[in-house]
Amino acid sequence: MLRRLSSPFDWRRLGLIWALVWSLLFLPACGAAPTVTPDRADPEVITLGTVLKPRTIDPADTYDLAGLMVIYNLGETLYTYKLGTTELQPQLAADFPQLSADGLRYTIPLRTGVKFHDGAVFNAEAMAFSLRRFIENGGEPSFLLADTVDQIETTGEYELTLTLKKPFAAFPALLAFPGACAVSPQTYELGEGKFLPDQFAGTGPYQLASFSSDSLKLTPFPDYWGEKPKNQGINLQLFPGNPANLFNAFRTGAVDVAYQSLVAQQVKTLQADAKAGKGQVIEAPGLVINFLALNTQQPALKSPQVRQAIAALVDRDLLNERVMRGLAEPLYSLIPNSFSAYQPAFQTRYGAANVEQAKQLLRESGFSAENPLQVQIWHSATSVPASMVAAILRAVAKRDLEGLLEFQPNSIASAAYFKNVGKGLYESSLSNWYPDFLDPDNYIYPFLSCAQGSPEEGCIEGGAQNQGSFYYNPQLLALIDRQRRELNPERRNELLGVIQALVAETVPYIPLWQSKDFAFAQNHIQGAVINPSQTFPFWTMTARRD
After folding, report:
1. CA 523 to chain centre
2. How far apart are CA 272 and CA 281, in angstroms?
3. H or E segment at 251?
4. pLDDT in tens, 484-522
5. Strand blocks (E) in 157-279
6. In which band, very low, low, confident or very high, does the pLDDT at 7 lie, cut at 50, 70 and 90?
7. Distance (Å, whole) CA 422 – CA 467
8. What are residue 89's DSSP bridge partners?
């Protein structure tokens, strides 16, 4: 996720979370499921199981997938995405914003007739309070708006005007971050650290009925302004860090839906079950990307030609099959293919596993079997996929490159790994990335921006330093700034295309794969949908137990 670049906050915390999630995908399936008692008193209440456990459901302090999934169903933002897509649409906003000529002032008309769960009325004052609280209470995600928004004004009872510090074309998408939802001024307070971790008063289709250590119960909000949920409530059953228990609970029928995260073999088993008529698979393209960062300031990787050789060697189909067991999708850009701006720039430039090109580039760079290029690949010790990638790259180089290149895999504890990446200690590093908001900028700016640096010393402060490439390119920085200011979608996509081509040419990062997302539902469940953002709309599901 994109982090405040100068903040003392540990910007890699989410990386630790995703290292855990990805490691869970490869744990062996073992252990017995605990006793789960679904709410069968009302057959229209759906039990959903997950291995994720919310730390808090206060929107101003939630920065993990578990909490955001709950908030998405309890709260509403000014803008959201059409189900199953990356297409933005108004939610609590009545329309898309009017934008001033300088690109700084967003005037947003608001929906009328909306109530909060505690009975308070939603209006511009309530929305302004919610956004100020998100910024001023100083929670983990506060930087998302604090770094962008200069002023929040109510310019009418149902009109909000937001002034930015500088133009940002993706700002409406940022307002769709679930934590930027409306919360009731009647329940919440402004003030640093004033959070309510186990309460919720928003405007969404569900209201919180209970929150315990192993479950949350959501019931339909009777005064909801929009279309009512198609079920009579959700029992969210938590199996923290234990995919085996979730798997067994689903197969025994103790849960109606299983989501986030089963191990690869369990996914394969449930896919086979579904083909035999036992349950359903809900699959969606994911927006988590996995990549190899190349430290452009390390002597071994200073030459673009050397980095190009490594890019040419990568066989994404092999990695998807061996590492992800076919449960991901090869990726040829930092921007996932779910966005219209996506250009398969690495495929266009290098093809797939172009061994001859890799050898030629290495020889032209002065390497030989007697003088091989040696590159260390570092990764978190908890990430099984990263360990497998490093081992496969090492084996492929040894098999195919005639001694020209030797990869040296290394691992270290997660906390130390994520800390060291930004210090420039590693020649190359394997990581993954989960976006804050659905816009191509969130795959460009966090990787390539630089607040301080030079072509000689590289990036010493900014996104490129944080992600471990230390890449500094004035041409690229100018392009990033232009696309952030460009409001015409077609022209912006053209700029993003140039950026992607330049990244493929200079290779500070090598994209590897993007995730696929899976949920599993019993046969009596209908209407389950996964969004690309990995938010899961509960309100679309029905339970028909005939």
Report:
1. 29
2. 10
3. helix 243-251
4. 999 999 999 999 999 999 999 999 999 999 999 999 999
5. 159-164, 206-211, 215-220, 234-238, 257-259
6. very low
7. 6
8. 80
3-state SS, 270-322, equals: HHHHHHCCCCEEEEEEEEEEEEEEECCCCHHHCCHHHHHHHHHHCCHHHHHHH
Global pTM reads 0.89
Q: Which two tokens stand for residue 531?
A: 């969004």
Measure the CA–CA gap between 459 and 475, rounded to whole angstroms: 14
Report the distance separating Cα 324 and Cα 58, nearest Å. Answer: 34
Q: Do 301 and 442 contact (CB within 8 A), yes or no?
A: no
CB neighbour list of residue 228: distance below 8 Å, 6 or more residues apart: 205, 220, 539
Distance separating alpha carbons of residues 22 and 264, to the nearest angstrom: 10
Q: Is the pLDDT of residue 42 over 90?
A: no
Architecture of the CATH domain 76-203: Alpha-Beta Complex (3.90)
Task: Match 């409530």 to its residue by tokens.
Answer: 233
* The two three-digit tokens of residue 270, written as one number: 């449930």
282: which 2 tokens? 């809900």
Q: Where do the domains of the chain lie?
A: 76-203, 285-516
Q: Which CATH class is domain 285-516?
A: alpha beta
User: Of 222, 231, 216, which is closest to residue 527 (Cα–Cα)?
Assistant: 231
- Look-up: residue for tokens 């180089």? 397
Token pair of 105 as six digits: 């002032």
